[in-house]
Design goal:
Blueprint lengths: L4 E6 L6 E6 L7 E4 H5 L7 H23 L6 E13 L2 E14 L5 H14 L1 H5 L3 E8 L5
Parallel strand pairs: 5-6
Antiparallel strand pairs: 1-2, 2-3, 4-5
């Protein structure tokens, strides 16, 4: 399986601008620029897209892991919080925190936690990233 995306850029770093498009068309000439990456400009940026990819990948992987132990979530909500800092090597993604809230009626807390850790370690985006990944997992509906 292969997936593609394209980027187009015009101009220098600070005043230039570009667009990003994806094979599926979900992103189609979506604006990005210095201001969308390092300030509060309108558009997207590579780090936001990585956070979205990680949140989506982890959440799907968790759904699979839960199925392996006989649980089906009513809902799984994940926020991926990516931190980028300037290091000696230059700007570097130093951490991603996955904040998960899961609603799983009748769930076993121990099996849930184990499934969440397996999903964190096993999702392809987690394995792609060379950074610290922290998981905060909250189960809303567990066996009392």
């Amino acid at each position: 399986m292969k997936r593609t995306a394209t980027a187009h850029w015009q101009g220098n770093l600070k005043e230039g601008k570009g667009t990003i498009s994806t094979q599926s068309g979900v992103l189609s000439n979506t604006q990005y620029s210095f201001s969308t990456r390092f300030e509060d400009g309108i558009g997207t940026n590579p780090e936001e897209l990585i956070a979205a990819a990680h949140a989506g990948c982890f959440t799907m992987a968790l759904s699979n892991q839960l199925g392996e132990v006989g649980m089906t979530a009513e809902s799984l909500d994940t926020e991926a919080i990516l931190t980028m800092e300037k290091t000696d090597a230059g700007f570097t993604v130093t951490e991603i925190v996955l904040d998960l809230t899961a609603t799983i009626p009748g769930a076993d807390q121990g099996k849930f936690e184990e499934a969440a850790q397996k999903a964190k370690a096993g999702c392809p985006i987690s394995r792609l990233l060379n950074t610290k990944i922290t998981l905060n997992a909250k189960l809303v509906a567990a066996v009392k």
